[in-house]
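Look over this today:
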Amino acid sequence: MRRLYLFITLICLVRSDTEETCYSFTRLSFPSAVVGTELNVKLILYTRRNLTCAQAINSTAFGNLNVTKKTTFIIHGFRPTGSPPIWMEDLVGGLLSVEDMNVVVVDWIRGATTVLYNHAASKAKKVATVLKEFIDQMLAKGASLDDIYMIGVSLGAHIAGFVGQKYNGQLGRITGLDPAGPLFSRKPPQDRLDSGDAQFVDVIHSDIDALGYREPLGNIDFYPNGGLDQPGCPKTIFGGMQYFKCDHQRSVYLYLSSLRENCNITAYPCESYLDYRNGKCVSCGIPQKEPCPLLGYYADHWKDSLKGKDPLMTKAFFDTTEKKPFCMYHFFVDIITWNKNVRRGAITIKLRDKAGNTTESKIDHEPATFQKYHQVSLLARFNQDLDKVSAISLVFSTGSVIGPKYKLRILRMKLRSLVHPERPQLCRYDLVLRENVETVFQPILCPKLQM
């Protein structure tokens, strides 16, 4: 019996020595935020070899980290309640699904957890110093700065910038997800994220009127829905905590959508959101033009398009839906009218395919002006991309509640896809729209241009 006991004990000791300990993200409570926490930076490694079992690493213990591969650092921001970011697991898994790399989660919950935002912000450069020491050891073992990629969320975006500054902008890439605005607005480049902090810096601004940074910070700055109120987020304080953080967090979820195969969000370089909505900045992506930039992980594919530009900075705008994966599909609706008098109003267009699927776009952000024999090109944004359109409906409205009802006499209407310019264009001729009355018709293929 004693021998059996000793044998079982030996097995347990061997198993405990060989079994791998999985590290988890630090989890604190709100009382910790009230008291405040001292800075303690921990690095958590995920690779395809240990996708579900994180390793704690440091400058002397690299674990599964392979310095010959790309290394992506994920840096969170202010954590006033001490809880881990709810999006972290999805972001880690998404990155490893698209590329075999090292993903290092920068856990600085101890330091970010405090009810006083300025206390957390004051620790940003200290976190950057810790990361610099770790990267130095990576470089000593053969890593390349070209393969270092940093994704910083809110306050974490500026931390990534501080790391980049320590390497004179030679890091491969930095992505800023709604960089924090409070305490950083109007700061000089050395005190915030800047376009010179890496070889390529892309930024998503989703909350420029509250928690985010308004001005451009990168080589390309994306402004979803103009960077203001995001679809699906609460508009009043009755939405609870989501009212305060939904717009700010949307940048992360938009980035996550780029890691899925069913959604490539196209953005359009433009001077302003209004110019984009008016269809003045959608020439990219068509034949003989430069490609349109893609949001998120593949934004760096547009890096070569920045060459020759001075400064190397571009603002890009796009709209999204309110639900994942957030993609919208852009079409131009070209209308030539033959009314004697000028007509001003909005157009609603609805598409239907042979399977009965429908999608609708209301082009009502400002009244369109229709003049006799002048073509008006309206940018229509649909939640679905219907390929085989079998029916189209149009509604014209002046927005007037009282007064006469007008007619819009259409000489020609043309529908053309921006996302798929190779698709046949659809036309219809000689239509009369009565105000606020839906007119349904079957489109025909537009005649091809004669060369």
Observations:
- The chain has two domains: 18-318, 329-445.
- The CA atoms of residues 84 and 382 lie 35 Å apart.
- Residues 1-18 have pLDDT under 50 and may be disordered.
